[in-house]
Amino acid sequence: MPTKPPFSVDVSISSTFYTPAAIRDEYYTPYSPTTDTSRFLQNDLSVECLNRIHKYLWLAGRPMPPRPLNYQTATSRQIVPDERIDMHMVWEPSRRIHLKPLPRYLLSHQFWKSYLICKEPCPCRSNYIYCQTEGGDGVCQQKHLYQCGLGLLYSYIALIERESDFAIAQDQHLIPHNVTWETWVRLVKELLENGATNPENVNARYLFGELRLSRLNKIYMFRYGSILRGYHFTYQTYTELFYDYLTPLTATIVYVALALTAMQVGLATKLGRNVAFQNASYGFTVFSIIGPLIILLLVAILGIIQFINNLLATLHFKRERFAHYKLLSSHS
């Protein structure tokens, strides 16, 4: 485990406030991150959702750093600032790529020293082994946060290579406004010299760059049986869900119509005397009538299941939320 921040105080970028004004807890109640910095950093940096499926990530993206921002815009990708760390460098079929804006605290030497470096007598400081945490998971919390934080910085080293990338990052509010190009160059130089590209120093998620959301959803579906939600539920309305599922059916119906027309012509020629062709035409005609109806029924069932699932989740959240309100009222 590294014993000092990945860059010196000389290139540290100071700021009046390093953390957000407020964040939300598990009950979606806003609270100040300075009241529990450790919990805030765990929520803001941890990529456990992707670490869980790390050995399958090659199916969703290449094991290489992300391409620079100028490449992202040149390929018509829309950059979407997204504070959710599990969506960082994840792109959708609609060609939107989600990028988490670089937090101010990761550019502060003192913040790294105070919150992201193991303190003595943590075993990570001496022999680079895992130590026992309160949760009993056997992973050093500080080491995990250090690797996640350095991994996020590493991704931005790759995203902002040239001054044109820097201009795009500022325009999209991906980096703090008080960071200049000259400061960024000096910071990146020190990060590269201090092992920011060493796989042992960054979280395993950052060994991969851009990841395709549709494939992440399929990985979660097959690995964990998460058929309805996958890695990230992309539909905001049921109309979007039905449209996405029924669009392929439209193309299939067009092909079936062409095939039926060809078979009709074939039956009017010498092929019509062929028993095998007659049987194939009969079977395909029955399939063309029943098949779309079955698919429509399956999509309708899926929509009903999704509606019931959302309804139950909403009722469960409502009970928990009002129980939390009651608990807050009793303590006030």
TrEMBL record:
Keywords, comma-separated and alphabetical: Membrane, Transmembrane, Transmembrane helix
Classification via InterPro entries: DUF6601
TM segment ranges: 245-268, 280-308
Keyword field contains Transmembrane: yes
Source organism superkingdom: Eukaryota
Pfam families per record: DUF6601
Protein name: Subtilisin-like serine protease
Phylogenetic lineage: Eukaryota, Fungi, Dikarya, Ascomycota, Pezizomycotina
